[in-house]
């Protein structure tokens, strides 16, 4: 019975509302390993997919999960199975900087004189 409790069923919700999984993971699985699994299972037809583990953020119960934590440590005490984690893809900072420098800067300040 202890072996069953050491496994967690996790579903990954993508930003477009589609899912990867559910799939069972041991409670000792690291968040970094979950991200690698997401990369391997990422739908090929989706645009702007992550290229590396660093591009992926996992959110569970409103918290961004740290790579060095285990699934068991991140588990919500309220519910056991299945767990849904939200997946956010962040482009590398160099792409963000390129995007910001290529767009003309606009002053968005508004002054109101009374």
Explain this structure.
The protein has helices at 2-5, 31-41, 71-74, 93-102; strands spanning 7-13, 19-26, 56-60, 63-64, 83-89. The model has no long low-confidence stretch (mean pLDDT 78). A hairpin with a 2-residue loop joins β3 and β4. It is α+β, with helices and mostly antiparallel strands. The protein has a 5-stranded mixed beta sheet. It contains 4 helices and 5 strands. 25% of the residues lie in helices and 25% in strands. The longest helix has 11 residues, at 31-41. It is globular and about 60 Å long. It has one domain: Phosphatidylinositol 3-kinase Catalytic Subunit, Chain A, domain 1 (Ubiquitin-like (UB roll)). Pfam families: Rad60-SLD_2. Keywords: Cell membrane, Lipoprotein, Membrane, Methylation, Palmitate, Prenylation.
Identify low-pLDDT runs. none
CATH homologous superfamily title:
Phosphatidylinositol 3-kinase Catalytic Subunit, Chain A, domain 1
Order of helices and strands: HEEHEEHEH
Structural class: alpha+beta
What is the fold's blueprint, element by element?
Layout: H1 2-5, E1 7-13, E2 19-26, H2 31-41, E3 56-60, E4 63-64, H3 71-74, E5 83-89, H4 93-102
Parallel strand pairs: 1-5
Antiparallel strand pairs: 1-2, 3-4, 3-5
Main location: membrane
Membrane topology: Lipid-anchor
Domain Ubiquitin-like: 8-74
């Amino acid at each position: 019975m202890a072996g069953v409790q050491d496994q967690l069923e996790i579903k990954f919700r993508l930003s477009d509302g589609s899912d990867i999984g559910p799939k069972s993971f041991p409670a000792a699985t690291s968040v970094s390993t979950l991200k690698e699994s997401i990369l391997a299972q990422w739908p090929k037809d989706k645009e702007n997919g992550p290229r590396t583990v660093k591009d992926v953020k996992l959110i569970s119960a409103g918290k961004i999960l740290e790579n060095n934590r285990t699934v068991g440590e991140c588990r919500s005490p309220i519910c056991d199975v299945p767990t849904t984690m939200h997946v956010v893809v962040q482009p590398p900072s160099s792409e963000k900087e390129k995007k910001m420098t290529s767009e003309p800067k606009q002053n968005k300040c508004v002054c109101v004189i009374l």
